[in-house]
Amino acid sequence: MARKDTRRYSLDELKAMHERGDYVAPKADAPTPEIDEDFWENATELMPSSRSSLHLRVDTDVLDWFEAQGKGRLTRMNAVSRSDVADQKQGPRR
After folding, report:
1. What is the pTM of this model?
2. What pLDDT sits at residue 91?
3. Counting Cβ atoms within 10 Å, is residue 38 exposed (0-12), middle (13-18) or buried (19+)?
4. Where are the alpha helices (DSSP H) in the chain?
């Protein structure tokens, strides 16, 4: 679920905002990234894949390790799984 202060824009909308000079002012404590013209020329729109919810039993030491890395443990666990799937799809290594 999106936060109330989160807005979604298409790539075309973002490009138009950039060309007009429109932007949403960042919060005072948020860093302002420098975005050059090269970014807009090479930007592509990425749509998130759908996700499924499941109950999963994980070894305690594995969960402890991911939790020790800080917030976002489930996102990191998913990224590790995704990386393994991508590796498996490439086939056996020689």
Report:
1. 0.45
2. 76
3. exposed
4. 11-20, 37-42, 60-68, 73-89
